[in-house]
Specification:
CATH topology of one domain: Arc Repressor Mutant, subunit A
Strand order of the largest sheet: 1-2
Number of strands: 2
Structural class: mainly alpha
Number of helices: 4
CATH class of one domain: Mainly Alpha
CATH architecture of one domain: Orthogonal Bundle
Strand content: 5-15%
Order of helices and strands: HHHEEH
Largest sheet: 2 strands, antiparallel
Distance between the termini: 55 Å
Length: 87
């Protein structure tokens, strides 16, 4: 298991406590609360609505979002194919 960077909240401890608020969720993801709202409203990140405006996030859903969006540094395509000189 990897350790969270020092500037990220320790969600392992928060998992034991249950749901996290928008500020903690946004900080963990390294994004602003406004970006988090957009991701939640688009369905990219699940949330639990508490009342008409309050949202809470499950730390497991935040980690799943990170894993789903993890990218490696691989080229989109091999540009060397088809570039041979003919003739």
């Amino acid at each position: 298991m990897t350790q969270a960077p020092a500037d990220r909240p320790n969600l392992d401890a928060e998992k034991r406590q249950g749901l996290v608020d928008e500020r903690a969720a946004a900080k963990y993801l390294g994004i602003s609360p406004r970006v988090l709202w957009g991701l939640a409203d688009s369905g990219s990140i699940p949330f639990i609505r508490i009342g008409p405006r309050l949202k809470r996030y499950d730390p497991r859903d935040l980690q799943a979002f990170v894993e789903r969006n993890r990218r490696t540094n691989q080229p989109a395509c091999d540009l060397t194919l088809g570039n041979s000189a003919a003739g």
